[in-house]
Amino acid sequence: MSTTAKVTIGLSVIFTASIVTYVHLSQILDRKKMKAGILNDVNKEQKKIQNLKMLQTQAELKRAYEREARNAES
Whole-model pTM? Predict the structure, then answer.
């Protein structure tokens, strides 16, 4: 086997192994990003629910304050 053929085969093997490794690592990173996106969505939804509860509580407190203010004026 000639030296040129050996070099060509060696470079082909290295190139192929590099591509396979790159694709594998890329898939791992994509999965991590997708999982992080899902966790972000869950956290946003929980924060939204918490904010709505806080808004309802503030509205109830405002109504109670307004009732007390009207009763104090009477």
Answer: 0.58
